[in-house]
Amino acid sequence: MDFDPEAVRTFEREGWNRAAAAYEASFATATRQFIPALLEGIGPGADLLDVACGPGFVTQAAADRGATVTGLDFSAAMLAVARDRHPGLRFDQGDAEALPYGDASFSAVVSNFGIHHVPRPQIALREAHRVLRSGGRIAFSFWAAHAENIAWKLLFDAIAACGDPKASTAPPSGGGFASPDSGASALRQAGFAEVETTTVRGIWRHAGAAALIAAFSSGTARTAATIAAQPAAAMPAILAHIAAAAEPFRGEDGLDVPIAAVIASGVKA
Ligand SMILES: C[S@@+](CC[C@H](N)C(=O)[O-])C[C@H]1O[C@@H](n2cnc3c(N)ncnc32)[C@H](O)[C@@H]1O
Q1: CA terminus-to-terminus distance, the chain
Q2: Range 5-268 classified under CATH 3.40.50.150
Q3: Count of CB atoms within 10 A of residue 127's CB?
Q4: What is the residue-level pLDDT of the chain in tens, covering all 269 positions?
Q5: Can you give the pTM of this predicted structure?
Q6: Strands 254-268 and 192-206
Q7: In Å, what is the CA distance from 19 to each residue of 38, 56, 81, 160, 210?
Q8: 16 close to ligand 1 (CB < 6 Angstrom)
Q9: Distance 130 CA to ligand 1 centre (A)
């Protein structure tokens, strides 16, 4: 399948609209763990844009630190949750590839697990650069490689062993960030200086293998499509594969699954 940015945009928007209601109780229990690292250095006086804000947890956390905040997302359903949960904050509908703000509007731009969902992440990073004032800072997070991001490794190893990794008909993505270096070089290409990356680790708790699959299914777009496309007959084996591989991570109340994300940051000269 050829890369078609509009097909990716439509697929992602529909997927996140579908996930919005369940997101807080499912995928956000993973993504929220990385908010403190993403917001390092943010405090009173910051004028911050949260790109791909989803239900607005990062936006709220930045406001709690004293920043003036704006959340932006292209999903109407995500924005409805954000506005309902954080009634005092500003949330705008818009696309990360075409931010509806003038040049030099913000002192900080952040995006928690948003940029790699945009059809052309490089355009989103250039847009972030455009809306930042000189001296302003960007920070964005993306998932680390499966080798250290065990929740993903459990799922995709099981699908590779017992299902069909190519079953999904989702349009191929515009490309994520395979490593800290790829995130850093994308920032440099977008014009940022003082580029840094750091890997942050967390634990994603689930009652068991079925709960882990359910969290991906109800709270994501592309990964949910991959799971939904698996042949029904393969699901018991996929579940059993995850359960066996996850045994080393059994804690007192279920599975304590390691997860890891890269925070990439840079400054507009
Ligand atoms: C994994 S969620 C992250 C949500 C939130 N930042 C968090 O910390 O949990 C990805 C978000 O990116 C948004 N998104 C994806 N592509 C986008 C685009 N091109 N423009 C704006 N938002 C986009 C989705 O609607 C969704 O809310």
Answers
A1: 39
A2: yes
A3: 21
A4: 678 999 999 999 999 999 999 999 999 999 999 999 999 999 999 999 999 999 999 999 999 999 999 999 999 999 999 999 999 999 999 999 999 999 999 999 999 999 999 999 999 999 999 999 999 999 999 999 999 999 999 999 999 999 999 999 999 888 789 899 999 999 999 999 999 999 999 999 999 999 999 999 999 999 999 999 999 999 999 999 999 999 999 999 999 999 999 999 999 99
A5: 0.97
A6: antiparallel
A7: 23, 14, 11, 24, 18
A8: yes
A9: 20
Query: What distance in Å separates the CA atoms of residue 198 and residue 113, rounded to the nearest whole number?
Result: 15
Cβ of 113 closer than 6 Å to ligand 1, yes or no, is yes
- Cα(250) to ligand 1 centroid in Å equals 31
193 Rama sector, left if φ>0, alpha if ψ -120 to 50, beta otherwise: beta
| Most ligand 1 atoms within 8 A of CB, residue of 58, 60, 78 to mutate | 78
> In the numeric block, which tokens belong to residue 82?
């954000």
Please name the residue that has the structure tokens 């590839």.
97
Q: Where are the beta strands (DSSP E) in the chain?
A: 47-51, 68-73, 90-93, 106-112, 132-143, 192-206, 250-251, 254-268
Residue nearest to ligand 1 atom 4, measured at CA: 54
Pocket lining: 49 vs ligand 1, CB cutoff 6 Å: no
Exposure letters 169-184 (e unless 16+ CB within 10 A, then b): ebbebbeebeebebbb
Q: How many CA atoms lie within 13 A of 174 on its CB side?
A: 21
Task: Give me ligand 1 centre to Cα 59, in Å.
Answer: 13
